[in-house]
């Protein structure tokens, strides 16, 4: 088994379903903290979070994927990810219900997104890995966060930074 | 018109008295007539006869004085004789004057002849005296023996004639009165005879009527005395005896009623006393059963008293235990509280462990991420990170379990503490309640002894009742026999003609009924005796009453007590 035909994934859970992100986009895993809320943002934009002196926008993946929001628990985590949107690299905090592990899957294990015979917004799915009796959906954040949205988020981040406390900016 | 005895007697006595009055009147009339005759005889004839004879005596005295004068020897003597002669003459003359004056007219002539004869005598007497004065005694004697004698005898004859007349008159009156007497006797005798006859007839009539009535009354009385009350008044005479017979009839009727009522009443008394006897025997039996029941109740009460005492002991013990339990429960509560505090501390510590484990987990995860990102170089590190993570997860899980368990334990301990806290007052309350139960048991004990006493009294009363009912039975039997005697006594009276048979028919029936009553009663008695032989008899009861008393202290311990001890 070599590093070429394996993919390192960070698996996490949203509700009862298991999702995964490639390890290379995950910078850090943090405890959930209440985000600094930025007014006039989209519903899934929770606000800003201080990650080692850097203001990072935090989004709720559940809301983004159309799931109902839940109260954060002790297992709730924030995945700090670096998303490459074109030539820009965006650092985001993604709130997930819990983080399972860092695991490796063979690339041949990865299946394509399910085809239901019609066009649907399945672009964010890189693939589906069958694990035990369930499935793990590999999420493509770059596709999930559309161009426009990413721009909006960037604007929001700018606005949020402007409104953020002085200590943050100093950091 | 009502011919009462009074009227009859009045009539009879009136008639007799009438006769008596008539006879008495007639007798009085005749007696007055006889008295008149006697007056005439005594007051006229005999007096005049006496005076007439007195005249004779006076004439003789005058003659004797004349003769004595002739024979006088002295002048004094002569004078004395003259004086005596004068006195006699004077007396004669006065007597004559009276008689002559009072003589009836047809006798005047006689008295004139007497006067004439005396005057003749007196003339001779004067002559003689003259001669004597002249001492011519011989002439005087001659005259005295001659002419004077003629005149004096003439006077004497006349005077004796007068006496004779009166004697004859008296004889005539005697004859008349004897005739009257004969008539009066005849009339009186005949009237008396008639009166006697009529009185006898009337007396016979009255006595016949009275005797007849009294005889009827007597017969009625005798028949009543013989006990025959069948007499009824008929054809009553309309007098007092009739009234009396009417009253007697009323009396007999009342007696009939009374006797009939008494007979019925005595029959009732007899049957009633039979019933009373049987009832009192039932009462006696009932009293016996009552006494037995009272005895049973007494023994049951004794058992109960023992149970109550046992209960009281148990309750006291339970109270002690409950107090100890309360104390223990309080201690347990405190212990639980301490345990809870300890558990809280543990939980706090565990959260620290948990936090550490979580953070370790996070760190391991990040390390894994870093190792993965380092590619091939980070592989060993990834393994370490994985192991660390596993440890962290295990310690987290263990901490979670411990936390969970400690939470559960705390909850349980808190529950236990709450329960104990609730339990303590409950146990205290229980102890108090048990104390109350204990007190109640003591009171129950007292009450049980009182009940026992009461039952004892009840038993005594029952014995007395049994005795009293026995006495009552005897008394009622006595009463029955006396009622029978009364019936026999009353049977003496025959109320009616048909009643001759009726009371006798009633009597044997009554006797028979008495017997028929008596026979089953005897049977009942023997039966009751037979049953009483099994059961305690009244006599036995009474004997027991003398020597039996419920003993409250004899309850003692028995086998049943053990159960209570075990339960305690």
List keywords for this structure.
heterodimer, A: 171 residues, alpha+beta, OB fold (Dihydrolipoamide Acetyltransferase, E2P), six-stranded mixed β-sheet, five-stranded mixed β-sheet, 18% helix, B: 568 residues, mainly alpha, Four Helix Bundle (Hemerythrin (Met), subunit A), Helix Hairpins, 2 domains, 10 helices, 89% helix
Write the layout of secondary structure elements.
The complex is a heterodimer of chains A (171) and B (568).
Chain A: E1 6-14, E2 17-22, E3 26-31, E4 45-51, E5 54-60, H1 61-64, E6 77-85, E7 88-96, E8 98-106, E9 110-111, E10 125-131, E11 134-139, H2 141-144, H3 147-163, H4 166-170
Parallel strand pairs in A: 2-11, 5-7
Antiparallel strand pairs in A: 1-2, 1-8, 3-6, 4-5, 6-7, 9-10, 10-11
Chain B: H1 5-70, H2 75-102, H3 108-133, H4 137-145, H5 147-225, H6 240-374, H7 379-491, H8 502-534, H9 538-547, H10 559-567
Helix pairs in contact in B: 1-2, 1-3, 1-5, 2-3, 3-4, 3-5, 4-5, 5-6, 6-7, 6-8, 6-10, 7-8, 7-9
Description of the molecule:
The complex is a heterodimer of chains A (171) and B (568). Chain A is α+β, with helices and mostly antiparallel strands and 171 residues long. Helix content of chain A is 18%, strand content 45%. The longest helix of chain A is centred in the C-terminal third of the chain and has 17 residues, at 147-163. The model of chain A has no long low-confidence stretch (mean pLDDT 80). With 568 residues, chain B is mainly α. Chain B contains 10 helices and no strands. Classes of the chains: A alpha+beta (171), B mainly alpha (568). At the A-B interface, strand 3 and strand 8 of A face helix 6 and helix 7 of B. Chain A: Pfam families: CheW. Chain A: This is Purine-binding chemotaxis protein CheW. Chain A: Residues 6-150 form the CheW-like domain.
